[in-house]
Amino acid sequence: xxxxxxxxxxxxxxxxxxxxxxxxxxxxxxxxxxxxxxxxxxxxxxxxxxxxxxxxxxxxxxxxxxxxxxxxxxxxxxxxxxxxxxxxxxxxxxxxxxxxxxxxxxxxxxxxxxxxxxxxxxxxxxxxxxxxxxxxxxxxxxxxxxxxxxxxxxxxxxxxxxxxxxxxxxxxxxxxxxxxxxxxxxxxxxxxxxxxxxxxxxxxxxxxxxxxxxxxxxxxxxxxxxxxxxxxxxxxxxxxxxxxxxxxxxxxxxxxxxxxxxxxxxxxxxxxxxxxxxxxxxxxxxxxxxxxxxxxxxxxxxxxxxxxxxxxxxxxxxxxxxxxxxxxxxxxxxxxxxxxxxxxxxxxxxxxxxxxxxxxxxxxxxxxxxxxxxx
Amino acid sequence: xxxxxxxxxxxxxxxxxxxxxxxxxxxxxxxxxxxxxxxxxxxxxxxxxxxxxxxxxxxxxxxxxxxxxxxxxxxxxxxxxxxxxxxxxxxxxxxxxxxxxxxxxxxxxxxxxxxxxxxxxxxxxxxxxxxxxxxxxxxxxxxxxxxxxxxx
Lengths: 375, 152
What we know:
heterodimer; A: alpha/beta; nine-stranded mixed β-sheet; two-stranded antiparallel sheet; 13 helices; 36% helix; globular; B: mainly beta; four-stranded antiparallel β-sheet; 10 strands; disordered N terminus
C-alpha cells in the first residue's frame, strides 16, 4: 500500500537573465521560500532531490549546502528540460514508498552560461553534421510545417498560443516576460526557423523553484489546509515508432498512464501546465492529453477554450513561452503554479474553483512526465 | 529486393584521390563525384523488419542484434523542411535549408536541401539524395548526402 503524498510548500524566484547570480543563490532563495510556505525548517527535511542540467558536478549538494548540512541524502537528477519534474517524482516516490515523511524537490537553472551539447559523447558529431544541425526551434519548425500541410493548421493558430501565454504571463509576477504581445507582433518578429519567429519560442533564462512534499498524514498533523495531494506522478521514455508517427506520441503514452493511475480522465481536469517550449507543441498536446480529438486542437485555441476563463485553461502562468524555461526548475515552476491555483491564491490569473491540475513536461532525449495534483 | 551488403565492406574515413572526405563513416555510398546520386546505408532488423538510419548495433524496436545492412534511396519524398536565415551561407551557396525525407524502404532521414527554388519546396514532392559539399579546408572537401529536387 502506497502512502498518500501531499505538496505542502512551494517557492520560486522570478525567471529571467541573471548572469552574475550563481545557482547556489537562486536555489537557496527558492528553497527558503518553499520551507517558509510549508511552515517547516530545513532540519525537518529527510531527503532532497535537485534537478539541474549543465551545471557541473554536484549542484544538489552545492545548492543545499547553502541552506544547511544536516546529513540527509541529497541526489542530483538530470532529465534535460524535465530535470525539475524528475526531482519532484523522486521526492514523491520517497514518501509514497514510506521511506520518509518529508522530502524536498528543487530545480535550478542557468542558461546564460553555455551548457554541454546534447548527446555530445554518445553520437558522432559527423552524423549530426550530415543531418544538418538544427536548433530546437528548427526541429519544431519541421513539425509545424508538416501539420500545416496535413491538417490545414495556419500560422495564426500557432501565433495565438504565443499571444495567449504572454497574456497569462503578464498576470504572473514570477514570469520572465510580463508584456502582452499581439498577433501582428508575433508574425513580424525575427524568423528563427521558418515558419517560426522568435515569439513562437520560449526564452532561455535563469532561476530556481522548489517544492516540499510530505505524507498526507504528516501534512494533516502540520495543519496544512487545503491539502494538495499528488493523485499521480508518472514518467515514460520514448517508445519506438516508425517514420510516420510523430514525437508527440510520448505525451499520449504518458497521459494515458497518468489518468489511469489517478483514476480520472481529462473531463475531470480544471487546468493544465505543459511543455510549451514552442507554440507548435501546445496545439499537439491539446490532442495527446485528451482535450481535443486528433486533428482538432486548433479549435481550442481559436475558440479561446484554453484561456484563463475558458473551458480548460492551459499554461496559466505564461508557460515556458512567457514564464520562462531555465531547464532545471521549469517542472517545479509548474508545481508552484498549480499549487497556487488549487489554493485559490493565484490572484488575477485565478482559475475559478480550480480543484484538479494536470502537469506535463518533456525532456530531450525522449522522456515525459505526467502529474495530477488535486485539492 | 533492395541490395544488401555486409557492414564490413564500408569504411570511407580516408579522403579519396579527389580529396572528398565523408563527414562520417558508413552513412552513404558511393563517394565518387559531387552531384552523383548516393544511397544511405541503413539497417533492417531480421526479427521485426524495422528499418534504422543511421545503422544501429541493436534494433530499437525489439533489441535484436540481427540487423542487416540495407541501402536506401536515392529517391524519396519531402516530409517537411525549415530554413534558418541566421545560419551562414552553405559552401555551395544558397540558404541553409534542412528537411526530412521519407524513403519507401521505411525510414525518415534529415538532411540539407540543395538547389531548391522556392517553387520547388512542396511537401511530398520527389527528391533525390546526392553527394554534396558541406565544408572545405586543407585541400579536402567534406561531403555528405544532401537532397535536391528529383526531376520527374
